[in-house]
Amino acid sequence: MSGSGRSLLEYSSFIGKYYNQCRPSTGRTETVAAVQAPGRDSQLAVATGRQEAVELVHDEGMRQLSLIGVPSSAGSYAAGQDQAPAALRDAGLIQALNDTGLAVRDQGDLPEQIWRPDRQRPFAQNAGQVTACLQELADRLGPLLADGDTVLVLGGNCTIALAVIAGLRRLNAGPPGLLYVDRHFDLNTPESTTDGALDWMGLAHAFALADTVDALAEAFGYRPLLEPTQVACLGVDADWATAWEREQADLLELQVTSGTALAADPRGSAMTALSVLPPGPLAVHVDVDVLDFTDAPLAESTDGRNTGPTLDQLAQALLVAAGDPRMRALSIGELNPTRSAGEPGAIPRFVGMLAATLSVTAASHG
Q1: Could you read off the pLDDT of 215-248 as tens digits, one per residue?
Q2: What CATH number is associated with residue 96?
Q3: Domain coverage including residue 219
Q4: Which among 109, 339, 343, 348 is least buried, having the fewest CB atoms inside 10 angstroms?
Q5: Is a pLDDT exceeding 50 seen at residue 205?
Q6: Residue 28 forms part of a structural domain
Q7: 87-121 residues labelled b (16+ CB within 10 A) or e (exposed)
């Protein structure tokens, strides 16, 4: 279905329906409400609890959305993230996306990879599996992006962002930009940390920093895959970074917005981060560990309790990104479904936020 007959008022109602109905009762006062902008029938205003609005111009028609799962924990600390694509589908993601009027093409999943200890290469564990998976993902994404689809990639861990950028580079539409929403810099290397998990080394390999794994840094035929000016980091907690990461972030002169700033002003933080990115196609990557784990127990890492943005606040930032005409891809990493076993509404709530975000992308970028 093209969805061209769906008005922005209907998208507004969708956001309220799918996002707010899944909100738990926490006693917090912030809300995400979708309202029609006064006197502007052709626009959508997404209001925060302070009644600030983000206005997005509607073009008739919408892109198709292709969805692909990457059920891999090979580059993670342990198994768990490999279950995320299935959990999101089971929570009604496809139906929620279809209900926006999107033309959803479910491309299925890549082969499953489950983490196991790599004792032959303990400081860059399962690097061969990770590299092969990302190369396959980039090959799958390339034709979909060339067809004009927006893509939603369900990880898995944060290394999937490299394959998304590789797919966007193959469009030859100018240098792509990456809005990297993560509590971590992901600038570690096998020499800067002893845990051997590639999931917080992704950007180091994209920038081809010293001591990275050559096969991964060169996996897509570009070295480096990204320049620092193509990346804006949103939601970082520098206290969680290694000394190496903090040093590299300074040397690279990365655009960095803290998790505290993101929580305080989601809309403004997102606009500032987006403003420094190049005019080429845009990818947004979300590591769910950016979230306050108490508000949304979704992430593999459980350390983010009572710090960082709530899911409401993240939604406000992502709705700004979704309205950016450069937006072509959204990827999700580090979601471990076992973390929310005691709060079964957490994943459906996250699904509602994803569908609301992508509905705005569809309405804004026909």
Answers
A1: 999 999 999 999 999 999 999 999 999 999 999 9
A2: 3.40.800.10
A3: 62-364
A4: 343
A5: yes
A6: no
A7: bbbebbbbebbbebbbbbebbebbeebbbeebeee
